[in-house]
Specification:
Distance between the termini: 74 Å
Number of helices: 12
Strand content: 5-15%
Shape: globular
CATH class: Alpha Beta
CATH topology: Alkaline Phosphatase, subunit A
Order of helices and strands: HEHHEEEHEHHEEHHHHEHEEEEEEEHEE
Helix content: 25-40%
Largest sheet: 9 strands, mixed
Number of strands: 17
Number of domains: 1
Structural class: alpha/beta
Radius of gyration: 24 Å
């Protein structure tokens, strides 16, 4: 006697792993894009040159006065308390109410490029590219703790559950390469950042817009390959049947965005079986390119590989790539509460050459004009430390003085937005909220923050929440 089998049970028993979830993708290049495809290319809201974005996130809180802000007045107060700062509130004022001493930078600064920008001696390679960089100083986030502040910079909200910047860009523009996800993530090979995958999550946007993590070792993407013994012909037969069943189900239930996205994800997964392994194989890169990124040096090899892969992803058409340097909060992050000198030497050595190589490599290939490169951290540091100097002084958290820079696309190289005071404690004049930086990133990608919205929980949501002001000073 025959028994009816529920559709879900049938599918679970009949098909073989995520690698077998996209047979019809074998013919994808010969098929027109599905009009419901969540990754279909979307037009820019206004013309901008950048088609790709590489977001370099330094986990832990980079010390701005030891990297890109020259503060000679701070040197004069080294070992002494900071002068009374009027109208200072919150946790920063609370720290100053306790015994503290100023910590001058132990590093020398020098002017570079035609723009005459001061750069710390810790970044000799990046210093060669200052005329391509536009800096934003005195950026403010709403929280001085790593978890909320990391989310604020990477998702626009200090609370979990919001889409990341990359998710918004993917949602707004779609993908150029139909063989790879539009949004890729390469984290520090030593481990994950604070908040883990929430840093690149899709939040309330459809799942198609979440970041896809590339692994440092082994298969580049987990569960991508089909089970042993499953042939391509078998995949095709099974996935053709799956596609037919899904489309029959979809036609009777229009609209069904989640199912449409799932159908396209099945096809993408199959195409990735061929594209992803070849894309992450850097063994065929010329030796001079490998040396350029520092792959021959143990200190720079980790982030060098991340940066080299980012260039390859741009070449392949990936829309948005997030690179994370730093692991949680500890010795492998930029959170230098103690021994800021030793910490900054270590961290900068790991990233200076690779980031400079990425800029140079993109430029020599004619890709920098099409690629927006962003350097960020979750906060800045204080010019003081609580207590005395001790033998190896460090710095505290400072959510009012984050420094970021951008390059590529329509960025005006050598430009500056914002300014901090003589001690790099807070901004001079109106602070720059992180939402303004996010609005600027979207603008440089050809997206209008006020138009890029998504209906969720009864209201239209956007990356900047209440809206951001574009920093026109850094746009050429």
């Amino acid at each position: 006697m025959m028994h009816a089998v529920p559709r879900r049970q049938f599918l679970n028993q009949a098909f073989n792993g995520i690698g077998a979830l996209a047979l019809s993708g074998m013919m994808a290049d010969q098929l027109a894009a599905d009009p419901r495809d969540p990754q279909a290319i979307q037009p820019q809201h206004h013309p901008r040159r950048a088609k790709h974005c590489i977001f370099l996130f330094m986990q832990g809180g980079v010390s701005q006065m030891d990297s890109f802000e020259y503060k000679p007045e701070l040197q004069k107060l080294h070992g002494k308390p900071l002068l009374r700062v009027p109208d200072l509130r919150g946790e920063l004022q609370g720290r100053l109410d306790f015994p503290h001493v100023c910590v001058g930078s132990p590093f020398k600064f020098k002017k570079h490029g035609e723009s005459g920008r001061f750069v710390s001696e810790l970044f000799p390679h990046l210093a060669e590219h200052v005329d391509d960089l536009a800096f934003v100083h005195g950026i403010q986030t709403d929280n001085q703790n790593h978890g909320p502040s990391t989310l604020h910079v990477t998702t626009g909200s200090q609370f979990p559950g919001s889409p990341s910047v990359g998710s918004w860009v993917s949602y707004g523009l779609g993908t150029i390469n139909r063989d790879m996800p539009s949004y890729m993530v390469i984290q520090d090979p030593r481990g994950a950042p604070v908040n883990g995958a929430a840093v690149w999550a899709n939040g309330y946007l459809p799942a198609a817009y979440q970041g896809t993590l590339l692994r440092a070792d082994g298969p580049p993407i987990l569960n991508l390959q089909p089970p042993a013994g499953v042939s391509h012909a078998q995949q095709r037969s099974e996935l053709d049947a799956l596609r037919w069943l899904n489309r029959e189900h979809l036609q009777a239930r229009e609209p069904a965005d989640e199912l449409s996205a799932r159908i396209n994800a099945y096809e993408l997964a199959f195409r990735m079986q061929t594209a992803a392994p070849a894309l992450v194989d850097i063994s065929r890169e010329p030796e001079h390119i490998r040396r350029l990124y520092g792959l021959d040096n143990a200190a720079t090899a980790g982030f060098g590989r991340q940066c080299l892969l980012a260039r390859r992803l741009v070449e392949s058409g990936v829309r948005y790539t997030l690179l994370v340097h730093g692991v949680q909060i500890g010795g492998h992050s930029w959170d230098d509460h103690g021994n800021v000198k030793g910490g900054m030497i270590k961290h900068s050595r790991e990233v200076d050459q690779p980031v400079a190589a990425l800029l140079a490599d993109l430029k020599q290939r004619g890709l920098l004009q099409d690629t927006l490169v962003v350097w960020a951290s979750e906060m800045g540091r204080t010019p003081f430390r609580n207590g005395g100097l001790g033998n190896n002084p460090g710095r505290e958290h400072n959510s009012q003085a984050l420094t970021m820079w951008m390059a590529g696309g329509d960025v005006r190289g050598g430009a500056t937005a914002g300014q901090t005071d003589d001690f790099s404690l807070r901004s001079v004049g109106e602070p720059i909220p992180i939402r303004n930086v996010h609005a600027t990133i979207l603008d440089l990608m050809g997206l209008d923050d006020e138009q890029l919205r998504y209906l969720h929980a009864g209201r239209y949501r956007q990356l900047t929440d209440i809206g951001g002001e574009v920093l026109t000073e850094v746009i050429g």
